[in-house]
Amino acid sequence: MKIYTIGFTKKNAETFFNFIRDSKIITLLDVRLNNVSQLAGFAKRDDLKFFLKELCGTDYLHTPELAPTKEILNAYKKGDMSWEAYEDNFLNLMSKRQVEKNINSTVLENSCLLCSEHEPHLCHRRLVVEYLNEYSDLNLSVKHLY
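Request: output the structure for the sequence above.
Response:
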């Protein structure tokens, strides 16, 4: 099953929506904890939902169950938690939430996980895909758009 990931930072709207359209994304899964107060105007929930549908024919779905908690995110952003600790905490959180049992696999087909980080290396969207590949039968083939 093919899945994509994308971050909106370091991209203007044209680049971002071209990635989505050209990759034929069916559903954009917003895995951000906070999807309304981001700096990029096109990435705010209501604007994003409108632009995705109008420009790309893509559906929008906010999936906060695939986002870190505020406590985990804030500790990492403030530098009180290393990436390794963040990764461990987030993977444990997904296990507690049993996301592999609760995610609708049909919505993942040709979907794209959205977060803010430009590259996936230090972003939880990469961890979501890796976790699902390890603990589910989905066999996700991932392409990171950046």
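Helices lie at 13-22, 45-56, 70-77, 83-97, 99-102, 105-108, 124-135.
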